[in-house]
Design a protein that fits this description.
By secondary structure, this protein is an all-alpha fold. It has one domain. About 40% of the residues lie in helices and about 0% in strands. The protein has helices at about 20-35, 40-45, 55-65, 75-90, 110-120, 140, 145-155, 180-185. The termini are far apart.
Length: about 210
Protein backbone atom coordinates (compact mmCIF):
# COMPACT_ATOMS: atom_id res chain seq x y z
CA UNK A 1 0.00 0.00 0.00
CA UNK A 2 1.31 3.45 -0.94
CA UNK A 3 0.82 5.68 2.10
CA UNK A 4 2.49 8.74 0.57
CA UNK A 5 0.06 11.58 0.01
CA UNK A 6 0.42 12.77 -3.56
CA UNK A 7 -2.52 15.18 -3.26
CA UNK A 8 -1.40 18.80 -3.31
CA UNK A 9 -4.65 19.95 -1.70
CA UNK A 10 -3.53 21.91 1.35
CA UNK A 11 -6.68 20.97 3.19
CA UNK A 12 -4.77 18.00 4.57
CA UNK A 13 -2.73 20.50 6.62
CA UNK A 14 -5.75 21.87 8.42
CA UNK A 15 -5.62 21.37 12.16
CA UNK A 16 -6.33 17.77 13.02
CA UNK A 17 -9.00 17.30 15.70
CA UNK A 18 -7.36 15.33 18.50
CA UNK A 19 -9.34 13.36 21.05
CA UNK A 20 -7.99 12.40 24.44
CA UNK A 21 -7.33 8.83 23.30
CA UNK A 22 -4.95 10.00 20.57
CA UNK A 23 -3.53 12.84 22.64
CA UNK A 24 -2.64 10.70 25.66
CA UNK A 25 -1.26 7.85 23.56
CA UNK A 26 1.00 9.94 21.33
CA UNK A 27 2.23 12.10 24.20
CA UNK A 28 3.31 8.92 25.98
CA UNK A 29 4.90 7.59 22.80
CA UNK A 30 7.05 10.61 21.91
CA UNK A 31 8.02 11.00 25.56
CA UNK A 32 9.34 7.44 25.44
CA UNK A 33 11.35 8.10 22.26
CA UNK A 34 12.86 11.47 23.28
CA UNK A 35 12.39 11.87 27.05
CA UNK A 36 13.43 14.81 29.16
CA UNK A 37 17.03 14.63 30.35
CA UNK A 38 17.55 16.18 33.81
CA UNK A 39 21.12 14.87 33.99
CA UNK A 40 22.08 16.52 30.70
CA UNK A 41 20.40 19.71 31.86
CA UNK A 42 22.60 19.80 34.94
CA UNK A 43 25.75 19.11 32.95
CA UNK A 44 25.24 21.25 29.85
CA UNK A 45 22.55 23.79 30.66
CA UNK A 46 18.77 23.89 30.90
CA UNK A 47 18.22 23.69 27.13
CA UNK A 48 19.43 20.07 27.20
CA UNK A 49 16.71 19.14 29.69
CA UNK A 50 13.83 19.40 27.25
CA UNK A 51 12.33 16.46 25.37
CA UNK A 52 9.68 15.72 22.77
CA UNK A 53 6.76 16.71 25.01
CA UNK A 54 8.19 20.20 25.46
CA UNK A 55 8.43 20.71 21.70
CA UNK A 56 4.90 19.43 20.90
CA UNK A 57 6.28 16.58 18.83
CA UNK A 58 3.14 14.52 19.45
CA UNK A 59 1.13 17.04 17.42
CA UNK A 60 3.55 16.67 14.52
CA UNK A 61 3.32 12.87 14.57
CA UNK A 62 -0.50 12.88 14.65
CA UNK A 63 -0.72 15.43 11.84
CA UNK A 64 1.81 13.57 9.71
CA UNK A 65 0.16 10.19 10.27
CA UNK A 66 -3.17 11.65 9.19
CA UNK A 67 -1.70 13.33 6.10
CA UNK A 68 -0.91 9.98 4.47
CA UNK A 69 -3.18 8.62 1.74
CA UNK A 70 -4.67 6.38 4.41
CA UNK A 71 -4.91 8.33 7.70
CA UNK A 72 -3.11 6.21 10.27
CA UNK A 73 -3.07 8.16 13.54
CA UNK A 74 -5.95 6.13 14.96
CA UNK A 75 -4.38 2.87 13.81
CA UNK A 76 -0.99 3.82 15.26
CA UNK A 77 -2.55 4.57 18.64
CA UNK A 78 -4.45 1.30 18.54
CA UNK A 79 -1.26 -0.61 17.72
CA UNK A 80 0.46 0.88 20.80
CA UNK A 81 -2.48 0.28 23.11
CA UNK A 82 -3.06 -3.24 21.82
CA UNK A 83 0.59 -4.12 22.41
CA UNK A 84 0.37 -2.55 25.88
CA UNK A 85 -2.72 -4.60 26.64
CA UNK A 86 -0.89 -7.74 25.53
CA UNK A 87 2.05 -6.82 27.77
CA UNK A 88 -0.25 -6.41 30.78
CA UNK A 89 -2.10 -9.62 29.93
CA UNK A 90 1.13 -11.63 29.75
CA UNK A 91 2.43 -10.09 32.97
CA UNK A 92 -0.67 -9.89 35.15
CA UNK A 93 -3.36 -12.01 33.52
CA UNK A 94 -6.64 -10.88 32.02
CA UNK A 95 -8.29 -10.24 35.38
CA UNK A 96 -5.72 -7.54 36.18
CA UNK A 97 -5.95 -5.68 32.87
CA UNK A 98 -7.80 -2.53 33.93
CA UNK A 99 -10.44 -1.62 31.36
CA UNK A 100 -11.28 1.69 33.07
CA UNK A 101 -8.45 3.50 31.27
CA UNK A 102 -10.57 4.14 28.18
CA UNK A 103 -8.27 1.95 26.13
CA UNK A 104 -5.15 4.07 26.73
CA UNK A 105 -3.14 1.19 28.16
CA UNK A 106 0.14 2.53 26.78
CA UNK A 107 -0.14 5.94 28.45
CA UNK A 108 -0.60 4.55 31.95
CA UNK A 109 2.60 2.51 31.83
CA UNK A 110 5.87 3.79 33.24
CA UNK A 111 8.86 4.39 31.00
CA UNK A 112 10.43 0.94 31.41
CA UNK A 113 7.10 -0.73 30.71
CA UNK A 114 6.57 1.35 27.56
CA UNK A 115 9.97 0.31 26.26
CA UNK A 116 9.03 -3.31 26.94
CA UNK A 117 5.86 -2.79 24.89
CA UNK A 118 7.91 -1.36 22.02
CA UNK A 119 10.09 -4.46 22.10
CA UNK A 120 6.92 -6.49 21.47
CA UNK A 121 6.29 -4.44 18.33
CA UNK A 122 9.87 -5.02 17.17
CA UNK A 123 9.95 -8.72 18.03
CA UNK A 124 9.30 -11.64 15.70
CA UNK A 125 5.91 -12.52 17.21
CA UNK A 126 4.61 -8.97 17.63
CA UNK A 127 0.97 -8.71 18.70
CA UNK A 128 -0.47 -12.18 19.17
CA UNK A 129 -3.69 -12.03 21.11
CA UNK A 130 -5.69 -8.92 20.35
CA UNK A 131 -6.65 -7.85 16.81
CA UNK A 132 -5.90 -4.25 15.89
CA UNK A 133 -7.86 -3.46 12.75
CA UNK A 134 -9.80 -6.05 10.81
CA UNK A 135 -9.51 -4.00 7.61
CA UNK A 136 -5.69 -3.92 7.73
CA UNK A 137 -3.52 -6.87 6.84
CA UNK A 138 -0.39 -7.82 8.76
CA UNK A 139 1.88 -6.54 5.98
CA UNK A 140 0.21 -3.14 6.29
CA UNK A 141 0.41 -2.97 10.08
CA UNK A 142 4.06 -3.96 10.47
CA UNK A 143 5.56 -0.70 9.08
CA UNK A 144 3.39 1.57 11.26
CA UNK A 145 5.61 1.52 14.35
CA UNK A 146 8.83 2.32 12.39
CA UNK A 147 6.95 5.16 10.64
CA UNK A 148 5.90 6.61 14.01
CA UNK A 149 9.46 6.28 15.28
CA UNK A 150 10.93 8.17 12.31
CA UNK A 151 8.26 10.87 12.43
CA UNK A 152 9.05 11.51 16.09
CA UNK A 153 12.68 12.32 15.32
CA UNK A 154 11.72 14.30 12.21
CA UNK A 155 9.29 16.44 14.20
CA UNK A 156 11.64 16.89 17.12
CA UNK A 157 14.66 18.03 15.12
CA UNK A 158 12.74 20.04 12.53
CA UNK A 159 11.54 23.63 12.78
CA UNK A 160 8.08 22.40 13.88
CA UNK A 161 8.14 23.82 17.40
CA UNK A 162 9.46 27.17 16.19
CA UNK A 163 6.32 27.76 14.12
CA UNK A 164 4.46 28.46 17.34
CA UNK A 165 0.88 29.58 16.80
CA UNK A 166 1.16 28.97 13.04
CA UNK A 167 1.97 25.25 13.34
CA UNK A 168 -1.49 24.07 12.35
CA UNK A 169 -1.62 26.27 9.24
CA UNK A 170 -0.74 25.02 5.72
CA UNK A 171 3.05 25.02 5.12
CA UNK A 172 2.96 28.15 2.95
CA UNK A 173 1.32 30.10 5.78
CA UNK A 174 3.63 29.12 8.62
CA UNK A 175 6.04 31.61 10.12
CA UNK A 176 9.08 30.78 12.23
CA UNK A 177 8.10 32.68 15.36
CA UNK A 178 11.08 31.63 17.45
CA UNK A 179 14.24 29.57 17.23
CA UNK A 180 13.51 25.83 17.67
CA UNK A 181 14.83 24.49 20.96
CA UNK A 182 16.11 21.26 19.41
CA UNK A 183 18.26 23.29 17.01
CA UNK A 184 19.82 25.03 19.98
CA UNK A 185 20.41 21.66 21.65
CA UNK A 186 22.52 20.38 18.76
CA UNK A 187 24.12 23.69 17.79
CA UNK A 188 22.37 23.98 14.43
CA UNK A 189 22.53 27.65 13.33
CA UNK A 190 19.43 27.44 11.16
CA UNK A 191 18.97 27.71 7.39
CA UNK A 192 20.78 30.36 5.37
CA UNK A 193 20.38 31.77 1.90
CA UNK A 194 21.93 29.76 -0.90
CA UNK A 195 25.23 30.77 -2.45
CA UNK A 196 26.60 30.14 -5.91
CA UNK A 197 29.76 28.70 -4.44
CA UNK A 198 30.08 26.69 -1.27
CA UNK A 199 31.42 28.85 1.51
CA UNK A 200 34.88 28.11 2.94
CA UNK A 201 35.64 25.59 0.18
CA UNK A 202 38.72 26.15 -1.93
CA UNK A 203 37.89 24.95 -5.45
CA UNK A 204 41.49 25.57 -6.56
CA UNK A 205 42.96 23.14 -4.05
CA UNK A 206 44.76 20.29 -5.73
CA UNK A 207 44.80 21.91 -9.16
Amino acid sequence: MDWTNHDSDIRMWEETPVNMYLDDTYKAFVDSIVPRSPELGELYGMIQYYGALDFDTDEYVIMSMNSLDVPLADVGAEVLNTAARQYLYERDGEENVDSSSGGTYFARLNMDERLAVMSILLGPDRINYFPVQENFGLEELLPIFPIMNRLTFMGYYSEWWGYGSTRSLPPNQRVLEYFPGSWEQVGYPGPSLGYRAARSYDYTAGT
